[in-house]
Give the backbone structure.
Amino acid sequence: MTDIGWRQSEVRISLAEPGDYWRLLKPRVMSLVVFTAFVGMIAAPGPIDPVLGLVSLLAIAVGAGASGALNQWWDADIDAIMTRTRSRPIPAGRVTGAETLTYGLTLSAFSVMTLGLAANWLAAGLLAFTIFFYVVVYSMVLKRRTAQNIVIGGAAGALPPVVAWAAVTGTLAWPPIVLFAIIFVWTPPHFWALALLKSEDYARAGVPMLPVVAGEDATRLQILLYSLLLFPVGLMPWGLGFAGTVHGIAAAVGGAIFVGLAAVVFVRREGAPARKACGRLFGFSILHLFTLFAVLAGERLVAAAF
Amino acid sequence: MTPTSIPAETGIRLTEAERRARSSRNRAIGLALAGLVALFYVVTLAKLGLHLPFKG
């Protein structure tokens, strides 16, 4: 045999750069996961070796990135349709679906095993459940079937502080469940504010986001209701005594502004003012969540220092 | 059995872009593997430090 029979036209040589594989991890989502997990770790009682703490955070981050890659593998068809996502590595043709699937599964396995070895197997099991929930329950089952997709699917994004708490303590308790509840209730108004701005995109891709299915007015009402619910939930760390007065004030002020901005979204329904109101709520929602978690971590670090 | 050979004119010739992309992927994989070795090394040291306290 002297000719292996390949022809240039039959062989696909990848043009993917490492940056494409980095983008498959959804780095912006990953940074939020790292931050909330870090706060969950700081809030947890008891010491953790700094090296093991850092490795645990890295494992949680990689697990989140892996689920982002698996989500892009599954959603490549709708990503190619939506303007917001059509330049992602798979729809852009730089990485294949099979490569992404392998990459995501490998990173998932490594992140779970690493967290189990560095911290404990409760945390590793919770991380595995988080990945499963995001990829299978949210991406494969809910996203294309129900307008409640991001409400239920939001649980996956809310779990990282719980995983981090478990990594430190080896158990679960009310404080991480409260942190979970804050992110869980925050997620719908945050994403629906964006969905109101991008509803045409979602409609074209056939994703049943609330504005597409129930209409924009119903979405504005739901945003307002969830914002009202977020106000007391944000105060729970202070109310239950595992956060201080500064956190209570930040939660009250931020929660009130959040409700105010949601009320503006509810009232302004037409044209540029409506779009501006949605954009402001979306931007503030990120700041509010960041503040709630940063103040909690700040209080713990100050208390530990003095 | 004759050893397999790929005649120069029928073999796969990478373009400059393909060669550059493959090279950067190889470097990234190498760094990731080295990082994993370092990671498990420090985790092992930290775990030993936690579970095997030295008695002086």
